[in-house]
Amino acid sequence: MSKNNHEADVAFIQALAELLNRNELTELSVKREYGEDDSLDVRVVKQSTVVQAAPVTYAAAPAAAAPAAAAAAAPATAAIPEDPAQHPGAVTSPMVGTAYLAAEPGAAPFVSVGAQVSEGQTLLIIEAMKTMNHIPAPKSGTVKRIVVADGTPVEFGAPLMIIE
Fold first, then answer.
1. SS3 sequence, 6-37?
2. 145 and 92 within one domain
3. Domain containing 20: what range?
């Protein structure tokens, strides 16, 4: 392969990386044929870090502060949070996209922590390729935890909520 092909390939790979970022893709794979027994296979993958928003909890009464202080004094090993993806009531993302907790900006969220939901009720929306996909509750129960924040990207299989 000549130096010109090498420079062209580098420019091609850089263009693919820019395309990946501009379109909020996580992976792109391309095969470029030059002729017999001469091709270039490129796979560009963007490593994403999943940031989980801490759930908002409200104290019911000032008396709730005493157990919280006792829990803070407990050993650090007892304070390790469980993985929400392993929870039996976890609702996971069926696709890659952007999660929205409300129908539109400024509107009330579909559900909140402590809300009773019925099977099939819309929990949130995941936007994928300019399409708004309503994510229904897989079962009836109480929303115990909302794992994603409004407007955050989600991957396939990422935990969204916990329903018990």
1. HHHHHHHHHHHHHHHHHCCCCEEEEEEEEECC
2. yes
3. 3-45
Sheet of strand 141-146: strand arrangement: 90-92, 159-163, 141-146, 116-117
Q: What is the pLDDT of residue 141?
A: 92
Decide if 55 is inside a domain. no
Q: Please tell me whether residues 39 and 92 are part of one structural domain.
A: no
159 CB-near residues (< 8 Å, 6+ apart): 84, 85, 87, 90, 91, 92, 93, 147, 148
Are 135 and 125 in contact by the 8 Å Cβ rule? The answer is yes
Residue 154 covered by a domain: yes
> For the whole model, what pTM was predicted?
0.50
pLDDT tens digit sequence for 54-110: 555 555 544 444 444 444 444 444 444 567 777 788 898 899 999 999 988 888 999
